[in-house]
Amino acid sequence: MTELLHNPKIKPEHLARKAIVYLRQSSDKQVRQNKESQLLQYAMAERVRALGWQEVEIINNDLGSSAGLAAAQREGFERVLSSVALGEVGIVGSREVSRLSRTDKDWCRLLEVCQIFGTLIADEQQVYDLNNLDDQLVLGIKGTLSVVELKVIRQRMLAGQEAKARRGELFKRLPIGYARDPVGKIMFHPDRRVCEAIQLVFAKFRELWSVRQTFQWFRDHDLELPVNPIQGTRLIWKLPSQSLIRDILRNPFYAGAYVWGRRPVTTLLVGGRLEKRQSAMRPAEECRVFIRDHHVGYIDWATYEENQRMIRRNSVNWEGDESMAAIRAGQGLLVGLLRCGHCGRKLHVRYWGGRGTHARYLCKGDYDDGGQYCIGLRRQLGRPVRRTRTIKGDRAIGGGSQSAGSRRTECRRHRSTCRPVPQARAIGV
Ligand SMILES: [Zn+2]
Full-prediction pTM beyond 0.90? Predict the structure, then answer.
């Protein structure tokens, strides 16, 4: 204590201002388990008092937030910076100064602000004055080293992870329906009920050809599926959600393939800040690691591919044949089922009338490209076709009110003009 009190770097103008002790532990787990480190960090406050400061503020808001995060996301660090910039702080203390920041930008900012406002920096051994060239150099090296250290650790970790994934051995958690045998080989779950439940999902999808309908079937029959609980390792049984059914059907693991990196994380600049975002799910073959016939599958690869094709076709946003897409809301009975016999485009539907119950089907032709509409026909809900005729030209393809018999004849006659698309289904996604 005596030795420290005589530290020549500490001047009365420093002591006249307050001291800040900054505490940080990077994860909640560390905060819970590594109490010793926390106590040592709190002991820093005692050291600062021993150096002669009366007023010591402890900033511990960042316990549990990583130093790799930008300062804006670490409230405590931001407070340190603003207090120093207000000229209120004589010394900033932290056990291992590298704890203050592990990003170059924040570290340089802190050093710059401390230099301008004559604020000292202290760790458990030294007091640094930023206006002293040697101290500046030492702090600069310490900061750079800690940034490099963090990057090396991260790189080493990622390389290890990737090597393990390339061998097909990296799993966060095995998908439901799989387990490991005593030597670590992947096999079907020993509980036959679990296996049968997974098989049933695939069998029902092959029968109904729709994720939504498969989900609905399980709901209607009150059938539960095994799921991995968020916490714990025991499977629990519950009524499936649609996303669970979709996840099972889309997971290539059930077709015996090992896939890693299906949703790679990309870093984007959003509003001046770097944000990590998971990108959309990639097809299995385009992932960073794809090993076919990695383990025993519930379905074979050809079946998996066929299932994926059908799921894609059912999607409203699919950019392929739009007539295969799901039928959306609206009162028209033939929405999504009609195709123009002249140009092959899918007929659009427009609703009109006071309550919007009158559907009018039309082919936009090349209207969007500056051309003309192709054909249009309309039908009132619950009433026979009154009039159908081409918009382009004067060739009428329908008459006034007709008997059922003559409508059937007309239907046959015009089957080649407006035909329902054979593969289209009337219900469900
Ligand atoms: Zn047309």
Answer: no
